[in-house]
Design brief:
The chain contains 27 helices and nine strands. It has 626 residues and is mostly helical. The chain folds into four domains: 124 residues, Potassium Channel Kv1.1, Chain A; 165 residues, no CATH class; 106 residues, Potassium Channel Kv1.1, Chain A; 125 residues, no CATH class. The chain has a four-stranded mixed β-sheet. Helix 16 packs across helix 17, helix 19 packs antiparallel against helix 20 and helix 24 runs antiparallel to helix 27. The protein binds zinc ion (2 copies). The site of one zinc ion (ZN) has 7 residues, from helix 27. The site of one zinc ion has 7 residues, from helix 27.
């Protein structure tokens, strides 16, 4: 097979008997006979027909009709190699190969599509590597290739999926694509769990009969086998003969010498039958996930709203329902006497305003309104109409902020952010700071609970830096997992999610460094120095190291600090990143466990409260300094 390493002009088509030209985006000409193209693509057939109508037999070789296409010459050339009897040519990168597929899909070249897919597999045998699959998934999403997206998602379902593990890959795709992947992942797991239960209780479809073992599960198969099958539901990568043999070996080791266990005698045929049955259950589960959605696909693509859209891998019942219901009645525009301008919302509500008011609030509108009006522009009752891209609800709030009336309060913090973004876009600096003041005063909504994650996503995509920073800090009060992000994940672009997760890690690292500083007591400057001298520490050091005693902290304190440190390292994403508020309680509990030590209780009585206060304030400072 060829790859497109050679310079393009030499490869471009010069087909004998050509009767028209395909011109690429980058102005390459591919001379080809119409009949091949027409036969393979109904979409191109129509395009060609338009150019050739009315039929004109007088075209000479010099003036062949030209059909302009939006693809590059390289991609078109590669596409044609799958139509003409020549050696097919697959682009060398995954990105380009996917683009080629998407072009074939767009022109409805069904047989060519299958042909290209086979050639791609031949050239790059499918990899089960996580990063490769993530890359293919993101590119398939980008080009709208459903089958490739599903295949990659299936490979990815073998891997753990949490934000911390994905961090460096998060910028590869939009939050919307990631959300789809996550939905697929959950669906696979739930279907697999129930199918595997059914498989176990049917004694592995009858393949596991006549076994003798010391312990059977309620499903009447050996306990270890039951556990093994169950474990696949949580970790699909365990569906692997090596893992099966490992489980068997572990069991035989545990039962060695126990004559009741005859698992060592399981026949090869039984294992093969069992394995075949298990494979068919697992394949069946994946097929079920796929079958759910295929015909709903188009619908889903059409119904995504504010959030960035992505190919849907799994259709969830009620998705389109809830969206249809979310349409609310349009707001009643403010009565504005003597208006001189109409601004129209994206959902076609007309708002009457005064040009000078708008011009005073917004240099953007000042410039816009100073331009001479085009003669063909629309007007209503003699007032010029300006079309804006914001919806009526937003414009209603915005306009209420320009006049001496009670401001129309946005219904949610999301809407506050969109309002702030509109102010940013139209240079309405003063209005923007009034809105911020209303939020600070509590008269406009502020983010509640895990809403801060979506607030971060919106603020980041709209370039609202101060809202983004404050939302980022608020996210630390919650776990950062796909569960807490919920639907809000769809609002993230990949970079925003990666940045937020890096921010969290930096905060965590600061907390860790801070806690570590409290484990040191080598000089008088360290706050923990006051605890040096606890008699219990003298037992801990061998005699020849006893000079180090003046640096050693009592074990209750060291344990307290190191436990918090370990928790931070392990749970930065699954728990709120909030040590400062509960550390004092933990300190007291730890100290009580050290009862009977006069030294530590005396230090606690004299300086304990100052020490805790310092610990709390240093930790709070460390968390918030990022
Ligand atoms: Zn056994
Ligand atoms: Zn002590």
């Amino acid at each position: 097979m060829l790859t497109s390493r050679e310079p393009l002009p030499n490869l471009l088509f010069e087909y004998r008997g050509a009767d028209f030209i395909l011109r690429s985006r980058d102005s390459h000409h591919l001379r080809v006979p119409k009949v091949y193209i027409v036969n393979s693509s109904p979409v191109l057939e129509q395009l060609i027909q338009k150019v050739l109508d009315p039929p004109d037999d007088a075209h000479g070789e010099a003036s062949l009709p030209v059909v302009q296409l939006p693809e590059s010459g390289a991609i078109l050339h590669s596409l044609l190699t799958f139509i003409f009897p020549v050696t097919p040519l697959i682009p060398s990168t995954t990105e380009e190969a996917m683009e080629l597929l998407s072009v074939a899909q767009k022109y409805q070249m069904d047989s060519v599509l299958g042909h290209i897919r086979r050639a791609i597999v031949e050239q790059n045998p499918p990899s089960t590597d996580r990063d490769t699959a993530l890359h293919i998934y993101s590119v398939a999403q980008k080009y709208g290739l459903h089958r490739e997206a599903i295949q990659a998602a299936r490979i990815l379902s073998k891997y753990r999926m949490n934000i911390e593990d994905l961090e460096d890959k998060l910028d590869m795709m939009s939050g919307a694509s990631l959300h789809e992947l996550r939905k697929y992942y959950k669906k696979v797991r739930s279907i697999l769990a129930s199918d595997l239960t059914e498989f176990r209780t049917s004694r592995a479809r009858g393949t596991l009969t006549g076994l003798n073992c010391v312990e059977f599960s309620s499903s009447q198969i050996p306990r270890w086998l039951d556990d093994y099958i169950g474990s696949i539901g949580d970790a699909i990568n365990l569906f692997d003969l090596v893992e099966f043999n490992t489980a068997l070996a572990r069991h035989m080791e545990a039962e060695s010498g126990n004559s009741g266990c005859k698992c060592v005698c399981i026949s090869g045929q039984t294992v093969r039958n069992f394995w075949e049955a298990l494979a068919s259950v697992i394949n069946g589960s994946f097929e079920k996930v796929r079958a759910i959605d295929i015909d709903e696909l188009q619908l889903m693509k059409l119904t995504s709203l504010q959030a960035e859209s992505a190919l849907s891998l799994v259709k969830e019942r009620g998705d389109s329902q809830t969206r249809a219901n979310s349409a609310t009645s349009l707001p009643e525009p403010l009565e504005v006497p003597g208006a001189s301008l109409i601004i129209r919302s994206s959902d076609l509500v007309n708002f009457r305003v005064h040009k000078p008011v708008l011009a005073m609030a917004s240099p953007f509108f000042k410039d816009l309104l100073s331009l001479p009006q085009p003669s063909d522009s629309e007007s209503i009752d003699g007032l010029p109409v300006v079309q804006l891209s914001e919806d009526a609800e937003l414009l209603n709030s915005l306009i209420s902020m320009l006049y001496p009336v009670r401001p129309v309060i946005p219904k949610s913090y999301d809407k506050v952010l969109y309002l702030l973004a509109a102010c940013q876009k139209y240079d309405m600096i003063q209005v923007q700071s009034s809105i911020r003041a209303e939020v600070n005063r509590g008269s406009f909504p502020a983010p509640v609970g895990t809403e801060v994650f979506r607030a971060y996503a919106i603020a980041s995509s709209k370039g609202l830096i101060s809202e983004m920073e404050s939302a980022a800090h608020l996210t630390l009060d919650h776990p950062m997992t796909f569960e807490t992000l919920g639907e809000g994940l769809r609002l993230f672009d990949g970079c925003a999610l990666r940045d937020l997760s890096r921010f969290r890690k930096r905060c965590r690292d600061n907390l860790v460094t801070c806690l570590e500083s409290f484990t040191r007591a080598s000089t008088r400057l360290w706050p923990s120095r006051i605890w040096v001298g606890c008699p219990s520490t003298s037992d801990m050091l061998p005699r020849h190291l006893s000079h180090l005693r003046r640096r050693v902290l009592p074990s209750w304190l060291r344990q307290l600090l190191s436990r918090n440190n370990n928790d931070l390292k392990l749970q930065a994403f699954t728990q709120p990143l909030v040590i400062p508020s509960n550390i004092r309680g933990e300190y007291l509990t730890a100290l009580q466990s050290h009862s009977g030590c006069e030294f530590c209780f005396r230090v606690h009585g004299m300086k304990g409260s100052t020490f805790c206060a310092e610990l709390e304030s240093k930790l709070a400072e460390a968390r918030d300094k990022v």
